[in-house]
Amino acid sequence: MESKIKEKIKHLTDKINEHNYAYYVLDQPYLSDAEYDNLFRELESLEKDNPKLIQPSSPTQRVGHPIKSGFQNYSHDTPMLSLSNAINEQEIHDFNQRINKWLEQESTSYIAEPKIDGLGVSLIYESGNLVRALTRGDGYTGEDITHNIKTINAVPMVLRDNKHSHPEFIEIRGEIFMLKSDFAKLNQVRVQEGEKLFANARNAAAGSVRQLDPHVTAKRKLSIFCYELGASKGLDINSHWGMLSYLRSIGLPVNPLAKKIDTINNMITYHQTLENKRESIPYEIDGSVIKVDNYFLRSNLGERARSPRWAIAAKFKSKDAETQILDIVLQVGRTGVITPVAKIREVEISGAIISSATLHNQDEIDKKDIRINDYATVQRSGDVIPKISNIILEKRPKKTVKFDIANHTCPSCNSIISRLEGEAAYRCDNPDCKAKVQGSIEHFCSKNAMNIDGLGIQIVEQLIDSTLVATIDDLFTLSYSDLVVLDRFQEKSANNLINAINNSKDTTFPRFIFALGIPNVGQHTSKILDIHCESSIDKLSMLSLEDLENIDSVGLVVAQSIIEFFNSPSNMNILNNCLAGGVKIKKTLFENSHQLKDVTFVITGSFKTHKRNEIKEILEKKGAKVASTVSSKTNFLIMGENAGSKLEKAKALNIKIVNEDQLESFIN
Ligand code: IVH
Question: Is 75 in the pocket of ligand 1 (CB under 6 A)?
């Protein structure tokens, strides 16, 4: 009897999974919604009567329990890089030329795909089972959102059988997004329920995967297209096109608009055609992505700090909309820079509702003669803040009001503001300006800085108002008894915040340096400084302007900012207080000992720039094996000059060969 029920459960499960595959991957659904629901209910009821027979991967188990203690962070096995942009046709041509020049060939085969305006996700399957899903995060570490990703029917809980055994480990990258129609429906419901509207489909998708309770995510209709491989073990694929068809074969949705492209003209045509049909595509896209097809060529091309050389995002022209400037207000940032912002009559641009646009600075206002009441075009492209692109002078009303920042004081503390010689921006110089203090504390606690959960805008304001916190180092003096007496705090939340602050103290050099909010020192620069200073703040503080300028990708402006920061006694005081308050910097281990795990190399011939032993050492530090003879177990032959019989053997065994010119990008 039990085996009969087991069989029935399996039959229903297979049927549901098969339908999901037909629906999401093949785009050929064959069951009506009602038929699907009936199968699902039948399975639910059988499982209810036979709880012992419930499989963790059953379609009924997609929605699990809420997570209680916030999202867990995981580091990505290989970083999730971003893409560099081409903003016009010339830059697409330049990309193609760069590639051909580097690879020393006349032409290269590419795959072009739509660039979806969603959020990147990494799906990890072990022996065919979905074990984890992570957000992109800062590219190096992401948040565990498995409980929410499981609720998306398009993501298989178990990979589909494709006649080959599934790899021991595979990480698949893709984009989570919301269809335009699902986004519109969601906002309609939110209007009816008096809830805040999502500004666009991307925010709605991002908000949905960052829920603690998967029941909420399950009600939102999320979609996915997969487009890259991360790390994998036991998989032999050598082209992107091959990879996309492999993904389809194991049941993952792949964008049907992906196309093989062999000439630069076809590349431009693909991009233009996509742009022309942008409105009729059921989800938001903001460009095309062009990728080198062949994986070996990709590894020859290698990567820059944040993006691979083998791909580019060709952006669509940004979209304009006409509106009217209702007012001009000032905003003050954490470094005291005052930014003029136009409050505009609300307009919608590619699904986003826009009510303000940046005016950058006074020079921009003067150059374009921007006045209150003017009609203007507002421009939005991708993630960047909307800006006023043009003033429609023919429509200028009789009554317009000119705007000059010089006639204003700081919008937060009312202090006089000033403009430094040679700088475009006005600044508030009051070190106690509340907006600056608040901004610097919020920045200090933010996700990519010290990552202190529970210090939202309102709490920070409350801590400043109650004089508990005036500068970032004061956070490390807070105690449970300081907090528990405040409004909005209860025993549990006071405890949680103290714990979050304590947990943040074990940190890394890039996080801490970024958190300090040194002007012009972002996350990327902090990582570069980390390498140069070997995670030592003392070392950083002792570098001269010249030392700093000599660091790759640190320019004069950044160097001056750093010098100025460490020359200020009050900054030094804050920094020392943080360290005395318990902040500990973990030394960063730079050699990624997993990068080349289980990859076997053989080195042959002589090399111009490296000794053979050096090459061996570099590879071994990255976890590779370096063998002395070529066999079927060899993955790569590193070939120098006068290579002999090993080269012949490697060729005969079809082993990938890396020459000295390619070696540098290969080991990087
Ligand atoms: S490939 C290293 N393909 O765009 C290459 N990305 O700016 C990794 N995106 O973080 C990404 N559509 O979230 C790739 N067809 C596509 C994409 C795509 C959207 C996103 C992705 C990535 C960002 C890069």
Answer: no
Helix (H, G, I), strand (E, B) or coil at 136: coil
- Does ligand 1 come within 6 angstroms of the Cβ of 308? yes
Q: How far is the CA of 82 from the centre of ligand 1 (A)?
A: 6
Q: Are strands 285-292 and 311-315 parallel, antiparallel or unpaired?
A: antiparallel
Task: Pick the residue whose CA is nearest to atom 17 on ligand 1.
Answer: 115
Catalytic residue among 8, 10, 101, 115: 115
CB-based contacts of 423, cutoff 8 Å, min separation 6: none
**Whole-angstrom distance, CA of residue 30 vs CA of residue 532:** 59
Whose Cα sits closest to atom 22 in ligand 1?
82
Q: Which amino acid is at 326?
A: L
**Is 101 labeled as catalytic in the residue annotation?**
no
Dihedral over alpha carbons 156, 158, 160, 165 (to 10 degrees): 150
Pocket flag, ligand 1, residue 304 (CB < 6 Å): no
Kindly state if the Cβ of 83 falls inside 6 Å of ligand 1.
yes
Atom index in ligand 1 nearest the CA of residue 120 equals: 13
Q: Is 215 helix (H, G, I), strand (E, B) or coil?
A: helix
- Domains of the chain in start order, with CATH, are 2-61 (1.10.287.610), 84-315 (3.30.470.30), 320-426 (2.40.50.140), 434-504 (1.10.150.20), 508-586 (1.10.150.20), 600-667 (3.40.50.10190)
- How far is C-alpha 417 from the chain's CA centre? 36
Report which protein residue has its CA nearest ligand 1's atom 6.
115
Sign of the CA dihedral running 349, 351, 353, 354: negative
- For 73-116, write each residue's pLDDT tens digit: 888 888 899 999 998 899 999 999 999 999 999 999 999 999 99
Q: What are the backbone angles phi and psi of residue 175, rounded to the nearest 5°? A: -120, 125
pLDDT in tens, 359-416: 999 999 999 999 999 999 999 866 578 999 999 999 999 999 999 999 999 999 999 9
Whether the Cβ atoms of residue 437 and residue 471 lie closer than 8 Å to each other: yes
Regarding the beta carbon of 311 and ligand 1, being less than 6 Å apart is answered yes
Which numbered atom of ligand 1 lies nearest the CA of 136?
10
- Confidence class for position 166, pLDDT limits 50, 70, 90: very high
> Both tokens of residue 600?
């076997």
* Adjacent-strand bridge partners of 409: 416
* Ligand 1 binding pocket mutation candidate from 82, 138, 172, 281 (most atoms within 8 A of CB): 82
Q: How many residues does the chain have?
A: 668
Residue owning the nearest CA to atom 13 of ligand 1: 120
Q: Cα of 316 to ligand 1 centre, how many Å?
A: 15
Long-range contacts of 389-393 (CB under 8 A, 24+ apart): 389/320, 390/320, 392/322
Single-letter code of the amino acid located at 86: A
Are 347 and 323 in contact by the 8 Å Cβ rule? The answer is yes
227 lines ligand 1 (CB under 6 A): yes
Contacts 24+ apart (CB under 8 A), 392-399: 392/322, 396/371, 397/373, 399/373
Residue nearest to atom 11 of ligand 1 (CA): 82
Amino acid at 112: A
CB 449 within 8 A of CB 457: no
Residue 232: phi, psi to the nearest 5? -155, 160
User: Using H for helix, E for strand and C for coil, what is the string for 260-274?
Assistant: EECCHHHHHHHHHHH
- Nearby residues of 659 by Cβ (< 8 Å), 6 or more positions away: 639, 640
Element (H, E) at 626: strand 625-627
What global pTM score does this model have?
A: 0.65
CA–CA separation, 324 and 322 (whole Å): 7
